[in-house]
Amino acid sequence: MTAPARLIAVSMADLPDYPISRSERLPELAFVKWIPSQWLQSKGFTRCTYECQGMARALFDLATAQSPIGTLPDDDEALAFLLHVDLSRWRAMRNLGDLGPLRNWVPCVSDGEVRLMHRVVTQQLEDVLARREVREMSRGAQAEAKRLARLSEGLVKAGLSVAIAGDAVLLARMDAWLGQTWRGNRTQMSYLRAIEQARTERWI
Q: What is this structure's pTM?
């Protein structure tokens, strides 16, 4: 029989800070990796009961909707409520310690609140957020390339040579100036104004 987990007093100052901000939310329809082979080789699968495994997997998923994402409240009543089980049943499961549903969940601090974090859950969510950032950067780069291409075409129509209108440094300066001074859609007038500014500043 497994001995109940012992409660050890730990200062909040000794707990690690949770690395994901409370302001972060999972993107809609985000894909969070679940690696079957990793789970099947873990002690959580090989040693825990199926009831415990079911609760553990539910807690993984529930954590993705918490604040901050990837954490759980360090509160038995809140955890029992999330799992839809009686408080007494949850406490019995938690007392299983290393063979319970909270296996490998450890205390951490987020904005002064003690929460529970799991290394694997945290890593997977950081991966989701990193992939989102890469996608956003990619979309931003594509949008910038299209905007500069339209600017170059507009400058040619406004009378500049193809060579001058294709100068990357000039386009970047004009694009930045238009971004600061022109409101609304960029029309032919905006390109003429940009040419005037470029001549005033001796960019061309």
A: 0.59
